[in-house]
Design a protein that fits this description.
With 179 residues, the chain is an alpha+beta fold. It has one domain: Gcn5-related N-acetyltransferase (GNAT) (Aminopeptidase). The protein is built from five helices and seven strands. The protein has a seven-stranded mixed sheet, with helices on both faces. A hairpin with a 2-residue loop joins strand 6 and strand 7. Helix 1 packs across helix 2. The longest helix has 15 residues. The protein is globular.
């Protein structure tokens, strides 16, 4: 099992996972992941080439040549918001669930986030009905910041989002400083 950053050359594997997620659990797929799934492969490959410059980092977990799961991290380039990252798009193909792939991807994302200068927090949102994801995030130390009621409307049903945050630094000396 290898977790690594995805490159434009991984676009076909990434696109396949995103498309599967959208057909499997559309209520758990966020707007950028949905856009990636619905767009064409050439468009996605081109977009992947510019993601890093936009503060977007994609990761995949591979078992041999097969991409079994994906996740992403975004960091706003505006200095007012660059102290935090947003984790999104975690999805494991059904045939690979139960093999700790979600844990591996989360460990990698958190480690990568901690390596980014000035990043103090990781944030995410999870559909409240996605109990396996909520439990996984809580195991890593994410805490609830609140519920956004009726955040998503799909097929005549509303879904709530839980907003979660995790502190990445342990620097008590600079706890209240904002740079």
């Amino acid at each position: 099992m290898v977790v690594r950053r995805l490159q434009p050359s991984d676009a076909a594997a990434y696109h396949q996972v995103r498309r599967h997620a959208l057909s499997d659990v559309p209520q758990f797929v966020g707007p950028l992941a949905e856009q990636e799934a619905l767009g064409g492969l050439a468009q996605l490959q081109s977009r992947m080439g510019t993601y890093e410059a936009d503060g977007v980092f994609l990761f995949g977990c591979f078992l041999g040549e097969q991409c079994a799961g994906v996740a992403a991290l975004s960091r706003k380039l505006n200095p007012k918001y660059s102290h935090k990252v947003f984790l999104w798009g975690l999805y494991i193909l059904p045939e690979f669930r139960g093999r700790a792939i979600g844990r591996q991807l989360m460990e990698h994302l958190i480690s990568f986030a901690r390596s980014l200068p000035g990043v103090r927090f990781a944030t995410l949102q999870v559909t409240t009905t996605n109990e396996p994801a909520r439990v996984l995030h809580q195991r890593f130390g994410f805490v609830s910041c609140g519920i956004e009621p009726q955040a998503l409307c799909l097929d005549g049903r509303f879904y709530d989002f839980e907003l979660m945050q995790m502190k990445l630094t342990h620097d008590a000396q600079h706890e209240k400083e904002c740079r």
